[in-house]
Design a protein that fits this description.
Helix content: 25-40%
Number of strands: 11
Shape: elongated
Domain Ribosomal RNA adenine methylase transferase N-terminal: 38-230
Distance between the termini: 42 Å
Oligomer: single chain
Binding site for S-adenosyl-L-methionine: 31, 33, 58, 79, 127, 145
EC number: 2.1.1.182
Strand order of the largest sheet: 4-5-6-3-2-7-8-11-9
CATH architecture of the largest domain: 3-Layer(aba) Sandwich
Strand content: 15-25%
Order of helices and strands: HEHEHEHEEEEHEHHEEEHHHHH
Largest sheet: 9 strands, mixed
Keywords: Cytoplasm, Methyltransferase, RNA-binding, rRNA processing, S-adenosyl-L-methionine, Transferase
CATH topology of the largest domain: Rossmann fold
Radius of gyration: 21 Å
InterPro entries: KsgA/Erm (IPR001737), rRNA_Ade_diMease-like_C (IPR023165), rRNA_Ade_Mease_Trfase_CS (IPR020596), rRNA_Ade_methylase_Trfase_N (IPR020598), rRNA_adenine_dimethylase (IPR011530), SAM-dependent_MTases_sf (IPR029063)
Structural class: alpha/beta
CATH class of the largest domain: Alpha Beta
CATH superfamily of the largest domain: Vaccinia Virus protein VP39
Length: 315
């Protein structure tokens, strides 16, 4: 660890929240991490190194933010809650020696700068799903305790918009972690698994118990690691491939020849595209990997309808 930092403990987290009048809300999916060991595990499994530019979504009261700064990272924290965004600079400045708060204009991020003039923490007040650009150098990693209610949309959105991200380590609901890391053919493989595989290889790295959070959620959490890789070699666009993925899983029990008939224009056209792609028309979507979906999109020859944000999860 490159910086002398005291992480937040349970008593201080509750004191900070009380002083600011913050009550964790289900609407924003807020569950604050109380345990410093869990914070350091997240940072360690993300392979954060000194000088890395790391984006954190939903810093909350700053538990993970301090862990990232302790590892020597320069952090861009995207926070949707104005109260928490205002509280974070004071908390970090108190825990990390030598940082000065540089307040920007009303529409500019707040920056915490060290004595050498290096921007160690930049706080962006925004909905992560609306962020298309980040201040400063491009981030190489996304490390976050993602709010349960938007974890998949945020993950897929950032992988799409920030191709500088080489790796991602997120804490999400355990069930969601299983779906994100599921291989083709497994019971939990679906839209999130296939779309995430377009950008990166995924693996679940650890289970996180409920007791490390405040308030304690009703479910366990897990850490999922993503390592960026090139998408499948294909002439089809990402939008076209994702349209095929959405159609394939719209009704999971349907064979692909039926599931893709509307997208293809007819059942016969769907069968022809599937056979051309080397995919059994009687197979179901959960048997097809992202390269297979790309081949199907190529043989369909058109992008098909794509609606909504890139992280929409099937029911």
């Amino acid at each position: 660890m490159s910086t002398t930092t005291t992480l937040l403990g349970p008593a201080e987290i509750r004191e900070l929240a009380e002083r600011a009048g913050v009550r964790p809300t289900k609407q924003l999916g807020q569950n604050f991490v109380l345990d410093g060991g869990t914070v350091r595990k997240i940072v360690r499994q993300a392979d954060v190194e000194p000088g890395d530019r790391v984006v954190e979504v939903g810093p909350g009261l700053g538990s993970l933010t301090l862990g990232l700064l302790e590892a020597g990272a320069d952090v861009v924290a995207v926070e949707i809650d104005p109260t928490l965004a205002r509280l974070l600079p004071t908390t970090v400045a108190r825990h990390v020696p030598g940082l000065t708060v540089v307040a920007g204009a009303d529409d500019e991020p707040v920056v915490l700068r060290d004595e050498a003039g290096r921007d160690r923490l930049t706080i962006v007040l925004a909905d992560a799903l609306d962020v298309h650009a980040l201040p400063g150098p491009p981030p190489v990693a996304l490390v976050a305790n993602l709010p349960y209610n938007v974890s998949v949309p945020v993950l897929l959105t950032f992988l799409e918009r920030f191709d500088s991200l080489e790796r991602v380590l997120v804490m999400v609901q355990a069930e969601v972690a299983d779906r994100l890391a599921a291989p083709p053919g497994s019971r939990t493989y679906g839209v999130p698994s296939a779309k995430a595989a377009w950008y990166a290889s995924a693996r679940r790295t650890a289970t996180v118990g409920r007791s490390v959070f405040w308030p304690a959620p009703n479910v366990d959490s897990a850490l999922v690691r993503f390592d960026r890789r090139e998408p499948p070699e294909t002439d089809a666009s990402r939008e076209a491939v994702f349209a095929v993925v959405d159609a394939a899983f719209a009704q999971r029990r349907k064979m692909l020849r039926s599931a893709l008939s509307a997208l293809a224009g007819s059942s016969d056209a769907a069968v022809a595209a599937l056979e051309g792609a080397g995919v059994d028309p009687q197979a179901r979507g959960e048997r097809v990997d992202i390269a297979g979906f790309a081949r199907i999109a190529e043989h369909l020859g058109h992008p098909g309808p794509v609606g909504g944000r890139p992280g929409i999860v099937e029911p």
